[in-house]
Amino acid sequence: MIENIKEVTLDTLVGEVTKMKNDGQRFVTYSCTDIGDGNVDILYHFDKDEVIVNLRLTAAMDTPIPSCSGVYFAALLVENELQDQFGLVFEGLALDFGRKLYLDDEITIIPMCNNTKAMTAKK
């Protein structure tokens, strides 16, 4: 069980991440899991004084997710990786590699995606 977790929505995500930064939280990383039915769980991990705090966003894979790279610039690397690996789209990315951060041009599948419909639509 994950401790110190707060549920967020697409509408509240950036505001909650901004609160984390204003509170002195250090951005650690995101974790993403395909939970089926075309949805993903994204866990946003932060640290302050060796205590991890997490935000959880459940979103449809075909819905654009607000980028947090305007709050924590380093988030652009994780968000680009999730675009590569899960076929997600982050709106407002400070720097968007267009699914080419880690993937070569010849890659035509979404590596971590179990959703066949999403895989076909992204080709």
TrEMBL record:
Pfam families: Complex1_30kDa. InterPro entries: NADH_quin_OxRdtase_su_C/D-like (IPR037232), NADH_UbQ_OxRdtase_30kDa_su (IPR001268), NiFe-hyd_3_EchD (IPR012179). Gene3D superfamilies: NADH:ubiquinone oxidoreductase, 30kDa subunit. Residues 16-114 form the NADH:ubiquinone oxidoreductase 30kDa subunit domain. GO terms for molecular function: NADH dehydrogenase (ubiquinone) activity. SUPFAM superfamilies: Nqo5-like (SSF143243). This is NADH:ubiquinone oxidoreductase 30kDa subunit domain-containing protein.
